[in-house]
Please model this.
Amino acid sequence: MNCAPRLARFGTLDAVEVPAEKKDALTVVCLHGYGADMRDLAPLAAEIPARRALRWIFPDAPEVLDWGGRAWFPIDANAFAQAQREGRPRDLSGGEPEGMAESREALAAALAEIGAAPERLALMGFSQGAMMAVDAALRMAERPRGVAILSGTLVDREGLRAAAPAKKGLAFFQSHGSVDPILGFAQAQALERELKAAGWSGSLRRFEGGHAVPPEVLTELGAWLDAL
Model:
């Protein structure tokens, strides 16, 4: 059973925290997508039907956008729009996006203050937040319990290939819409191949839809968290 949500701060990042009554609960740090904020995914704490005790933390990304939303790193809006017009979702596999390093440092500091032991920590993210969740898992000194990648994509293929084998055996949950117009399904498949090649344990769950997390995925995500 979870306690009432509350506002918290870890390092320089504000967050919504949903504490658990049990001190040995699994801590799930869930990262929102581009343009959203810490409140966007907070309802997942009640919507994911996990049976085990979970402590949820939903941090704000550090960059504030003009309209008040937040981002983990800037995006090239024109490049995304052009890719969509041409029917080819944006490919980020060629290198690390500008601005990602700064958010990486802020997230690492937040994780240190959250204080969950790696074996009791799961990282989760949607879209840009999923990219950050994978990146954080790659760079942790010890392997976390698991990583959930919701509508993410392959970022910096060569960097991932260099770092991912050190986390061999890491459990991952990946879901992606078959007709996602923003982050294409083919790149999600490419990410799955890279993670499996590095020895990570998991698979891609395809659903018929776009850039979203449908109810059936939430059900499966709850079962995955219970099994960690």
